[in-house]
Amino acid sequence: MPEITRQIGISAVLAAVITRLKTDANTIAYAAKIFNNVPQSTAMPYIRVGEFLDRPSAMFGSRDFAPEDVSFQVHVWSNYAGDYEAATIMSLICKALTGTRLSVTGYSTLYHAVLEYSDVLVDDTVPTAICRHGILRFILRVCPS
User: Fold this and answer.
1) What is the domain range of residue 112?
2) What is the pLDDT of residue 1?
3) Percent helix, strand and coil across the chain, each to the nearest 5
4) Domains in the chain: how many in total?
5) pLDDT tens by residue, 36-95
6) pLDDT value at position 144?
7) How far is CA 139 from CA 31, 57, 70, 114, 127, in A?
8) pLDDT category, 125, cuts 50, 70, 90?
9) Closest of 54, 74, 56, 55 to residue 65, by C-alpha
């Protein structure tokens, strides 16, 4: 019986998520402001994809395949006075990532991202620059080809 080789899907999922966000009709207006590593001079609003966690799937798997649960966060930063702008962008991101299955390079099928939670926080660490920080956490179950 062949042994299953595990792989880590973080880089493939990161590429798939950023590609989707930059090309989806819901979020294409923010395409130039979607990052994994945000340049320091970037003006708000912008979107950051990060905080990945990859683990073997506890729900699925067999001796023939080893699916992974890849969770990740999408952050929205806004200096709009109130939650509206961050919440609106978060809704567009959710539509973009959950509306149609994602194609992930190195993984055999198309996958649905599932929203685990969302939150909008007030970031007042710099008193003269209060902003909103929206957080969405998704999980994607993938299985290597």
Assistant:
1) 10-142
2) 43
3) 25, 35, 40
4) 1
5) 999 998 999 999 999 998 887 666 655 556 677 889 999 999 999 899 999 999 999 999
6) 74
7) 22, 11, 6, 5, 34
8) confident
9) 56
Query: Domain for residue 2, yes or no?
Result: no
110, two tokens: 């198309």
> Number of C-alpha atoms within 13 angstroms, CB side, residue 37?
0
Burial class (CB in 10 A: 0-12, 13-18, 19+), 44: middle
Asked if 105 contacts 123 with a C-beta cutoff of 8 angstroms, the reply is: no
What is the token pair recorded at 12?
């493939």
Q: And the tokens for 32?
A: 């130039």
Judge whether 60 lies within some domain: yes
Residue 8's identity, in one-letter code, is I
